[in-house]
Input
Amino acid sequence: MIFCVEDDEGIRNMMVYTLRASGFDVCGYGDGEELRAALEGELPELILLDIMLPGEDGISILKELKSHGRTAAIPVIMSTAKGSEYDKVIGLDLGADDYLAKPFGMMEMVARVKAVLRRVQPSASKETLTAGKLVLHLGEHTAMIGSERIKLTLKEYELLRLFMENKGRAFTRDQLLLAVWGDDFLGETRTVDVHIGTLRAKLGACGEYIETVRGVGYRLEVGA
Output
């Protein structure tokens, strides 16, 4: 399911029609309140989010999405006014996965949606995740390097799984805290640093896959 948030009804209808014709399930919404109501029912695979919305702009909505554990991992493609470099930079810094500059072609939109979904979301049918020499067996809840099983705590495993499901994507400490520990956790973001440290140590040479992104947080990158 893809959620398309666009206040211009004509553009929204065209986006929804094109995505459906391309084989996607899509729902369209006109503003942030409609999006929030929809998110209470189900979580989409991806959100297309216009920056210029009535009442509350897309940047504020993006910030809210990325600050809550339930929605932090949903990939977001922002649509911005042509030439709005500031909006593009802010959106990417806040965790947007890509952007479309208006006016954009419908086929370009479909291509970017497919590219983001390939990059950030493994197939639901996959029973394993791989990154370099690392393999996660999801059904068995185990981590392997070659034939060696790595003993991880639950939080270490969930961190590694989140990284491997979103290879190349940078997460802030707050995003990691919410995604892995949940909204009701009362500790500090230092908790994330400690767990990243122990995870890297347990992974040995593969621990280098988890990179520190200065001024942001962490990401998993293989072969960089």
